[in-house]
Each structure stands twice: as C-alpha cells, then as structure tokens.
Task: structure prediction
Amino acid sequence: MRRILSGMQPTNRLQLGNYLGALRNWVALQDQNYQCLYCVVDMHAITQPYDAATLAQSTREAAAAYIAAGVDPKKCILFVQSAVADLHAELMWYLATMTQIGKLNRMTQFKDKAGKDSERVGLGLYAYPVLMAADILLYKATHVPVGHDQKQHLELAREIAATFNHRYGQDFFPQPEPQILGEATRVMSLRDGTQKMSKSDPSDLSRINLTDDADMIADKIKRAKTDPHPLPDTVEGLAGRPEADNLLTIYAALSGRAKADVVAEFAGQQFSQFKPKLAEVCVAALSPITARMRELLQDPAEIDAILRDGGSQAREIGAPVMADVRKIMGLWS
Ligand code: AQP
Result:
C-alpha cells in the first residue's frame, strides 16, 4: 500500500511557500493511487512561543486552507495531530530512545530557529524531528511530499526507521520517500532572496499569505527586494541574483510554465515591468483559494466535523501499528 503523510504547522497563516512547496502537490497526489493522510501539526506549532487563545482557530484556518486549495476530505484523511496525540507522543518517546543526539545536533532548522538562544529554547524544538518521524512512521507512510527545507528531517526519519528495524530484527517500518516536487521547492523571502519564505518571519512583507487580498499582494510584490539590473535572457544569467531568481521561479510555478520559458519572455525587461505581471498571476492563483477559505470559515462546526472524522480514521490506522510497536519492543501492555 502506497501511503502519504504530510502536515503543516498552524503557526500564523499559510504562505505561498507552503502552497507551492507542499499543498499544491498534496492536491495532485490525492488522485494518484495513494492513501493520503494530511494533518495540521498543532503539537509542532507549540514548540515555539505561541498564543494558546488562538491556536485552535489557527488550526481550523489551516484545515480550511487545505480544503480551499483542493484537498478533498472524501479522497483523503484530513485530521489534526493532537486528535491522535497519545499515539504520536508515545511513538515519539520510543523513537527518541534510539535517536542519537549527534544527529539532532546537525539539524539546520533547529539552528535557524533557536538562533543565539540555543541553550534557552525548549526541548520540544530540539526534539521536533523525532516527533516528525513519529508522525510519519505511526501510519507506516511510504511517501512524504514536502518542500526542500524538510529534506534533512526526512532523512533523519528514514534513519530512525532503519535503526528500529535493525535493532528489533524486523522489516517493520517502510523507508519513507521524500517527494520534493514542482518548480518551486524552495520559495524565498521577498525581502531577502537568500532566506526561505516563512510563516514565522517577523516581517509580513517577506511573504505572501494565502489570505492576502489583491492589493496586499500587489503591494508586497512592488516592494519586494530586487537588484539594479534588467532581467537576464537565460536561466544561467540568474546565478548570483537570488531575488530575481526567486520572483521568476514563483511566476513559473504559478503559471504552470517552465522557468526557461518565463525567463525568455521577460528577457531584458526592468523589474518595474515584470512585477505587475507577477502580481497578476499571484492574484489569479490565490484569490479563488482565499475566497473559498473565507466561505469555509463561516461554518467552523463543519470544519470541526471533517477533522473529527479524519481523526478517527487516522487512529484506526495508527492504533494497530502502535500495538505492534509495543509488542516488538517488549513493553508490558
Ligand atoms: N519557503 C518555502 N518553500 C517551499 N516549501 C516550503 N514549506 C515551508 N516553507 C516553504 C513547506 O511547507 C510545508 C509545511 O511547513 P511547516 O508548517 O511544517 O513548517 P516550515 O517548513 O518551518 O514552514 P514555515 O512556513 O517556515 O513555518 P514556520 O515559520 O511556522 O516554521 C513543509 O512541507 C515545508 O517544506
């Protein structure tokens, strides 16, 4: 059985990178002969400072964004991680006993997020990749569609699965395959083409949120950092020009065209000519999603019902896996 598991944190609003790097691919994959489990990973979202009063609503909003972008709860299992918290957390603990500290020390996301505060941040942020491995392995997922930034965590999940199988002499967990798909696997910040676009960047101008309206999108693109040169006439000409590369990549991904094709179309033009065109494709791609999200959020009870149903289905898959894990590991229960 080919099974997909992927998730997003309900930290802030979803941004264009989440959409192009992951969400859009999730939608395509649900029609490709996989059993798909898509979750809102709220237990990951609490690894950094957050607002308890708004977390549940942000979780609903993330689920609404999935559905608005095309994730169909009739074709996939759509659920919230904390609805199956006991199993995710239990497996995480067992996997933590076989994860080497040295490997966690190499995780670049922890270094980026902890910054200079690495001695003071919580254990949860450090152990985040182990919880992510548990999220995937609890369902014996075989494929994990993610953006490029999650590649290192996926590699660790594969190593943890192999360690478990080796230690207990069983071919129990599959090796989850990363699926890093599409033209825009790493969308960069609009304020700095060397940093990835992120929900938690303090500057809202650095990203396009899936909830931004047409004027906000146009304004953010107009103010996006660029360089003083006209656009190049080949893809190679983008080397050393991260902002130009990023904007053309976004254009190509949103218009469903090859980057070389887009570069050829805008060759020699100024950013001032290109940016309004980019704003147009962004608004055309995102405004139906934003409108649908708004509609869905009018009825939070309906979203909650979908999520509750998804939680039960996820538990049905995860519970027998956990029962086997306990047995294999020799736990009394
Ligand atoms: N800039 C990006 N380009 C391509 N893909 C991206 N993803 C995130 N940013 C980009 C992909 O979106 C999925 C969900 O990510 P997440 O919510 O688990 O957290 P993240 O990877 O840390 O993304 P953010 O937006 O930067 O979140 P915060 O700021 O909350 O940490 C993943 O598949 C990710 O690869």
Notes: Strands lie at 3-8, 35-40, 76-80, 143-145, 177-179.
